[in-house]
Every structure is written in C-alpha cells, then in structure tokens.
Design goal:
It is a single chain. The chain has 7 helices and 8 strands. Strand 5 and strand 6 form a beta hairpin. The protein has 2 domains: 37 residues, no CATH class; 102 residues, no CATH class. The strands form 4 sheets. Strands 1-2 form a two-stranded antiparallel ribbon. A two-stranded antiparallel sheet has the order 3-4. It is of the alpha+beta class and 184 residues long.
C-alpha cells in the first residue's frame, strides 16, 4: 500500500494523473464481453451470480444497452419516467418512500400497455410517441403538483390517473381550457 505523506508520494506532489496511474496499476482487470476492452473491475457492476462477483458487461456497455431498449419500448420509457418523477417528488416534498414503485403504480408493464391503448384516440399510437414525431404526451388527470402527503403520492401516481393526450389538448389543459376530468 502506498503511503501518502503530507500531499507527496515518493517526493513528488500528488496530482490526479499520478493517482490514476497508481490506481490503474493496483486495479484488478477484466475483459468486457460486449466491447472486448480490458477494464478495471470498478468499471463493472457487482453481480453475485458471477464467479468473479462482477458482471460480464462493463457499465458503459450496459447503460448503452438499457438506453437502446428504452428508446425502442415507449411503455418502458413512460414507466421509467414515472419512477424518476416519484423519486423527485419524494425528495422535493421531503416524503419518505415506504412502498416500492410497483405497488404505487399498481400495474405491470404489459397491463399498462393494454390500459394506455384503451385510452388512445385521435390517431394516437405507440409509433408516434417517439422523439422524432412526438404527437402525444402522458398526462396526469389530477396534476402531481397537488401532492402534499405520501398518501396523495400513492393516489395520484397510480396508473389510473394517467392518460394519453394529444400535445395540443395537453397545452389547452395546462392553460385551463379543458376540464380537469378525463376527456373520454
């Protein structure tokens, strides 16, 4: 183990570059099965199932694969956005999240797909929810800004409070020109 004495190692001032060189030499390495690069084990997520206790794909490759999957599957994209939104609301309002997302949201991915499809109107499809040709948005019937307690969060983040709205309808609702109730 290298000792740090008053900001110097071997008589040289400790810099970020020197520290990286030292750590890379001390680092145990592994090859990523996707990009085939040899990387430090810290570049891999922990995986208890693997013999080496680290995953076979590096963090960068796994994150890229997750992003590609999210871009292909609009239902997954909506659900992950709802998860981030719940975390953000809990943090902002100082609420302690005591129930996992699945119980708050109240439905699995396949069920949510069927539910949303039953609410489609006016040319709304999964294909026109992409970033390139976004024609509609996900709307909360009762706005999330009304959340004060954790019970409110559970009630308002439930899937039944979500509906697809054409962008123009969503803008009108935001301006107060549409009813606050469902338009279906």
């Amino acid at each position: 183990m290298v000792k740090k004495i008053s900001g110097k190692i071997f008589g040289k001032k400790l810099t970020f570059e020197i520290l990286n060189i030292i750590l890379s030499n001390m680092c145990d390495t592994k090859r990523c099965n996707v990009c085939n690069e040899i990387k430090c084990r810290t570049e891999f997520y922990f995986d208890n199932k693997e013999k080496t206790k680290t995953g076979s794909k590096c963090k960068k490759c796994l994150n890229r694969k997750k992003e590609e999957k999210r871009m292909r599957d609009p239902v997954l994209r909506i659900i992950e956005y709802q998860k981030r939104r719940i975390r953000s609301i809990c943090k902002k309002k100082g609420l302690k999240k005591t129930i996992n997302f699945d119980k708050i949201f109240g439905i699995d991915r396949d069920g949510f797909r069927i539910y949303m499809e039953s609410k489609f109107y006016g040319g709304i499809t999964w294909e026109n929810y992409s970033k390139k040709q976004k024609k509609w948005e996900v709307d909360h019937v009762i706005a999330l800004k009304n959340i004060q307690t954790f019970e409110d969060l559970i009630r308002l983040c439930h899937y039944t409070n979500i509906q697809p709205l054409l962008i123009e309808d969503h803008k009108n609702k935001s301006r107060g020109e549409l009813n606050k109730t469902r338009i279906f």
